[in-house]
Amino acid sequence: MKRRNNLDEMQEQKLLHIESRGYWLAFLGLGAALIIQLVLYGPDADYKLMLPEWIVFMGICLYMVIGCIKAGIWDRALKPNFKDNILMSVLAGLLMGVVQFIISYRNYHKPVGSVAAGIFTGIIVMVLCFAALSVCASVYKKRKEKLEKEDEE
Amino acid sequence: MKNLKMKLARMEQDISQTDLAKRIGVTRQTIGMIEAGDYNPTLKLCIAICKELGKTLDDLFWEED
After folding, report:
1. What is the signed CA dihedral for A152, B5, B8, B14, rounded to 10 degrees?
2. Please, are residues A86 and A132 in contact by the beta-carbon 8 Å criterion?
3. Could you give the ipTM of this predicted complex?
4. Spatial contact of A104 and A75, defined as CB atoms under 8 Å apart
5. What residue segments make up the domains of chain B, in order of their start?
6. Rounded average pLDDT over A11-17
7. Of A74, A121, B17, B56, which has fewest CB within 10 angstroms of its CB?
8. Interchain pair B7, A152: CB under 8 A
9. DSSP three-state, residue B64
10. What is the phi-psi region of residue A16: left when phi exceeds 0, alpha when psi lies from -120 to 50, beta otherwise?
11. All structural domains of chain A with their residue ranges
């Protein structure tokens, strides 16, 4: 049975906007909470406590990636090309490099070692991020091509 | 409900879904979904389609009872 909608078109649009903002607040807040816990507690962080948050975070990530690729949607501003993929990978690498530097420095107070740990983590994250983006871009392009040809009359 | 009026208007002008989509600046999927009645376009998009096909909103989007 179809549920009756109490909202009119305008209210429906407004609700979608509110829900969208709510989603981004929750998603980014969850990501920030994970990073803050890592920075604050470092190796002493209780990973068992962080696991549910991480699972929810990754679940949301997977849902978004699969949902968008299935619908043939990439991003409003970015394009699935080498340049944009590299740019986002470098940003992710920089962010995680800085986070790793802070964690390392807070715990061991060795600037050189912390910088090295930051650079190493940054490079690893950048490479993994670029690989993931490249795979997703490739799948997205195939899906988009299929959707564009599907049922064309 | 399928939008056969829009499909006919497009075919009369011998324009493919892909061409119409390119001219309006949307994807081919969007045009396909409007014609199939699976997507309700905004007024802005309806007007863009009408202008491109040389029709009025009544011609393409008014549903007779």
Report:
1. -80
2. no
3. 0.72
4. no
5. 4-61
6. 93
7. B56
8. no
9. coil
10. alpha
11. 10-71, 75-147
Q: What is the topology classification, in CATH, of domain B4-61? A: 434 Repressor (Amino-terminal Domain) (1.10.260)
Cβ atoms of residues A89 and A80 within 8 Å: no
What is the residue type of B19?
D
- Facing residue for A153 by CB, picked from B17, B27, B29: B17
**E strand spans, B1-65:** none
Nearest CA in chain A to B16: A153
* Nearest by CB: A72 against B17, B29, B35: B29
Look-up of token digits 């906007």: A17
Region of B41 (left: φ > 0; alpha: ψ -120 to 50; beta: rest) is beta
Tell me which residue of A153, B13, A74 sits closest to B49, measured CA to CA. B13
Residues 6+ apart with CB under 8 A from A122: A93, A94, A96, A97, A98, A100
pLDDT digits (tens, 9 = 90+) for A88-124: 999 999 999 999 999 899 888 899 999 999 999 999 9
Distance, in Å, from the CA atom of A100 to the CA atom of A103, rounded to the nearest integer, reads: 5
